[in-house]
Amino acid sequence: MEVRAFQWKGDSLFLLDQRVLPEKELWQQLKDYRDVAKAIKDMAVRGAPAIGCVAAYGFVLGVMKGEDPELVYRTLWETRPTAYNLFWALNRMRKALEEGKDLEEEAKAIEEEDYRANKRMGEIGQQLIPKGARVLTHCNTGALATAGWGTALGVIRSAHYLGKDVFVWVDETRPYLQGSRLTAWELLKEGIPHSIITDSTAGFLMRRGLVDCIVVGADRITKDYYVANKIGTYTLSVLAKVHSVPFYVAAPKSTFDENSIGEESIKIEERSEMELKFIKHVPIAPDGSPALHLAFDITPPENITAIITEEGIIKL
Ligand code: MRU
């Protein structure tokens, strides 16, 4: 069965807790919008499109229970600052409320549209993947990060199901390990050949000619095509440029912030140093050393070969 990150059941939202994957497949039932906000903040659910969908259902839960819509909107809004889909989805839900639309139907439409956009990006994007390609990806951009199928991983998935014999290099993606824990889990479930690498292995593989292209997702794309994505994406783009490896970004239109221009316009989330200095509560760094944990970086358009969307390919 296809992997799903969340499921709406009419009066509650079920979330597959991504913090405990791959050891446990644990579903949480959420009935309160505050718990939805906490799940987004604590990254039980993550990935820009999935965050947007889940926030939309959180809005439904809050308004359904008679909570103040503005408070519900604000609480969900303040969870993660970089993923644009969060703000896009919340604004759409607030507008639906103002227009007297059925909120549950609107949230379902957001979910369905995201799933369709991913499938379409897969069809379009796979055309860029040569037969037998060794594709490198970063973070998790699969079914777990979206309403299903995935953005960058969706492109890889589509190429695989078309019999293109792809092989995937999976960046482990320090410190939250979305690559080794989540992307590898998805690929293994579907029998897509892959190997996990440390983030710092990527450059050497490119030098050895073992990477044919790179496909990553995005958390926010400005009007002039600066791309915010998981920390380490910018480094990969520089390495790709030096080694003449095509560098693709796959993202739905709901990730494009038409009101922001230039990299300074993007707020970069800074997360707790604890996520960097501990693995499963075991310290891996001296207690006294401070640590900087930026969750995202920004890749400039000059380092990007093309952006794949559900509406077509933007060549840069
Ligand atoms: O911190 P995360 O795990 O939410 O970051 C996710 C990413 O950076 C993804 O690449 C991005 O959201 C695109 S997901 C389709």
Would you give an account of this structure?
The protein is an alpha/beta fold and 316 residues long. Helix content is 36%, strand content 18%. The protein folds into two domains: 6-117, translation initiation factor eif-2b, domain 1 (Four Helix Bundle (Hemerythrin (Met), subunit A), Up-down Bundle), CATH 1.20.120; 121-315, Rossmann fold, CATH 3.40.50. It has a seven-stranded mixed beta sheet, with helices on both faces. Helix 1 packs antiparallel against helix 2. The longest helix has 23 residues, at 103-125.
Quick gist of this model?
The chain has 316 residues and is an alpha/beta fold. The chain is built from ten helices and 16 strands.
Strand content: 15-25%
CATH architecture field of the largest domain: 3-Layer(aba) Sandwich
The CATH topology label of the largest domain is Rossmann fold
Return the structural class. alpha/beta
Q: In the residues, how many domains can be counted?
A: 2
Distance between the termini: 37 Å
Number of helices: 10
- Proportion in helices: 25-40%
- Rg, rounded, reads 19 Å
- Main sheet: strand order: 6-5-4-7-10-15-16
Instruction: Write down the CATH class of the largest domain.
Output: Alpha Beta
Order of helices and strands: EEEHHHHHEHEHEHEEEHEEHEEEEE
Low-confidence stretches: none
Please give the largest β-sheet. 7 strands, mixed
What is the name of the CATH superfamily of the largest domain?
Translation initiation factor eif-2b, domain 2
